[in-house]
Amino acid sequence: MDRFRAFMRSRYLAYRTEKTYCFWVRDFIRFHQMRRPEDMGAAEVDAWLGHLATRRSVSLNTQKTALNAVVFLYKQFLGMELGNLHFEKTTRGRRLPVVFTHEEAMAVIAQLQSHHRLAASLMYGSGGLSHVEERGAVPRFGKRVTSLQMPARSRIRGAHRRGSRGSPSYPICR
What we know:
It contains eight helices and two strands. The chain is mainly α. Helix 2 (about 15-30) crosses helix 4 (about 60-80), helix 3 runs antiparallel to helix 4 and helix 6 (about 115-125) crosses helix 8.
C-alpha cells in the first residue's frame, strides 16, 4: 500500500483522491481475503463491485468511485489490462432529505422559548419564494427574495423596541 500511495503522490493526485483510492483498494483486497491484486483479474473486480451493489447497497456514485480506484490500481500502477467488466450496477440513487411538514415544524417551534423561538421562526420563515404574496414583507438580499412570517416580523419589531430598555437588541431591515 505504501508503494501505491507513493505512486499516486508521484502523479500529483489530490490528497483526498489518494485517501479515497487507498480506502477502496484496501476494501477490494480485504474482500478477497488479502490476496494480492497481481493474482486477481476482471472476475474478482466484477465480484467485488457486484458485492458493493447488492450486499452493501452503495449509491451509484460510490460504486463508480470504487471502480475508478481499482481501474487506476490495475492500469496505472500494475500496468495490467482488466478487459471488459460485467458487474451488477447498483440501482440505489441519492438519498432524499427528510423534511418536516408545516405542522411538524410549527410544533417544534412552539416548544422553543424566547430568542431561540425567534431565531427558529426566522430560519423557518425566510426560505421560500412561494410564500411571498401570503406574508407580505419581502426583504431582498442580493439576488434572493426572502419572505418573513408575520408572527416573526412582529416579534422582531417588539424585540427591537425593547432593545432600548436594556433587553437584547435585534436589528430590523426596513
